Fold:
Amino acid sequence: MKPIIYFRISIFILLLSISYTVSAKKKIVRYKDFEIAYKKNSNLKTLSKRFNLSYILLLDTTYKEEFFRYDTELKKDYASSSAGLKKQKGRVVFSTKLKNISRVFNSKRLKKRIISFTCGTGRYKKSKIKYPIYIKGNTAIVKIVGDDFWDVYYFYLENGKMKVKIIKMWAIDV
Structure:
């Protein structure tokens, strides 16, 4: 009986860890993940099903020309978004001792502060982060959604300060 119990517990733990790994991958997409996928298969039609190419482009412009050849709308979208980012000064959301932006987004308390800061107190309770979050280094592209809006933000961790710039705002007709 004991070997069967150990076997069942081992299978349960294995399945639990696989489930945790899969759900963690859905929450954060690292730029490295895209690069690895691109090196294996550079077909952007296939990659666009797994990755938001606009977000990837905002994190890094290495594949900019390939993206623009694949989808001319990406060029317009990028031009608009990057111009807006250059004009803005990052607003400080909060100070932190954390050195890694991934850790910031793994903290429930800090995610609440981020949503409260970006949405204000009126929309805060009905707003949430729409996963996945796209990350490269200490920069993240994050979509926050509510009942009647969605906003895309450019967050970055700099000298112990979490800063934000708005990329897009969109009100949904209700």
The longest helix spans residues 2-27.
